[in-house]
Amino acid sequence: MNGFVYLKDVVTLELDREKCNGCRMCTIVCPHAVFAIENKRAVIVNRDLCMECGACEKNCPESAISVRSGVGCAAGIINGILRGTEPTCDCSGSGGSCC
Amino acid sequence: MKEFFLTGNLIDTVPQVSTVWSKRDLWETIKVRWSVGRMNYKVKPGIYAIGQPSEDAPVFVTGNFKLSFDHVRRALAGMSAWLLILDTKGINVWCAAGKGTFSTKELVRQIELTNLVQIVKHRKVIVPQLGAVGVSAHEVKNSTGFSVIYGPIRAEDISGFMKAGMKATTAMRAVTFSTWDRLKLIPVELGYGKKYLILIPAIFIILSGLNRGGYSVDLAYKDGLRSVFNLFVAYLTGCAITPVLLPWVPFRRFSLKGFLVGMIATIILAWFRLLGSTLLEIISWFLMIGSVSSFLAMNFTGTTTFTSLSGVQKEMKTALPLQIGMASTGVITWIVSKFILL
Known about the structure:
The complex is a heterodimer of chains A (99) and B (342). Chain A has helices at 25-29, 55-58, 74-83, and strands at residues 14-15, 35-38, 41-44, 65-66. Chain A has 99 residues and is an alpha+beta fold. Chain A has one domain (14-83): Alpha-Beta Plaits (2-Layer Sandwich), CATH 3.30.70. In chain A, the strands form two sheets. A two-stranded antiparallel ribbon of chain A has the order 1-4. In chain A, strand 2 and strand 3 form a beta hairpin. Chain B has 342 residues and is of the alpha/beta class. Chain B has 14 helices and nine strands. Chain B has helices at 23-33, 66-75, 93-99, 104-113, 116-119, 137-144, 158-163, 170-173, 179-190, 199-208, 217-244, 254-271, 279-299, 309-337, and strands spanning 6-10, 14-17, 46-50, 59-62, 81-85, 124-128, 147-151, 210-211, 214-215. In chain B, strand 8 (210-211) and strand 9 (214-215) form a beta hairpin. In chain B, helix 4 packs parallel to helix 6 and helix 9 (179-190) runs antiparallel to helix 11 (217-244). The interface between A and B is large, with 48 and 57 residues.
């Protein structure tokens, strides 16, 4: 995608091809074309493009995909550390600026 | 209360929406881009009509951030369709999906609340693709009988998607991040530090008066203004210049990109003898501008469309201690430079 690639070999995306039923849902929902279908089953073709949004995991009816999803946002991670919670942008909070 | 973008009511209770932006819509969009009232720019969740939809007309789902609502209704010009607005607390679809307000639960709730089964004969809802982060298509189908069809990412592609028989092309499925996209986000980025924009310059102006002879108001004014200018440069390189030049600045790590752009700016300032009068002060500004620019550029990860949580965590692990170390060394060096002529 337009030459935008973030760090290599860091994402937590896992696909269990044994469980895949070839429904193509992951290829539809992924905003970065991380998946393709080969031999009627999904395969990860652009692993480093994954932004861990979690859409594929959520829409896989066979639970063949797992990924630790969350906000890839430094301010959100700092927010999480300060409050002792998961990384959060917290737009709905006390009027802080966010996405 | 009658909203100004509504044109009437259909089948008694469904409000009909205009597909044309009024001057007021445009003005409000500009204000929101500049963070004015951004957190309270909402429309009422529920069902709306575009044109004269029949019971066969498609149902488009979006969030209740008015900017999302506006883009979808404008993209539906010339069509007759239903618009199902989820309560995302005024947040855009992608962020709301990440936060869990644009969700399976909320979609199911609105389908039931609006009695969608009575409004349309078919059993399909078109959800923007980025909503998939929060919506599980098979769970919605199980709970309501409605199939979720993932539409294009951008509202402007809706017409092409419908003409192709509800099929999105690869280009419609790919998230992009053009220079224009990034330029539109700069006002929001510049608002990031608004809490500190008065406090920190004030501290620097006050401290600028310090010198070996005690305190000089004259110096506070002269050196103080220069300090504020240097800080402003760091703010601009981190919040605006690095984000706009993002794909052309080398390195993958945003902290390194920001540091590099900050360093280039510092060298330019040094060239014009704007950094300081002593070697120590010049060094202190290299440290302060570099770290501030690096930190602010790193924060842009949250605005981009391609950084992962694992990646940002990895980057921060090394970058944050370095930034804090550099910034504090910079501030100490700067204060020391007030007393030692080196």
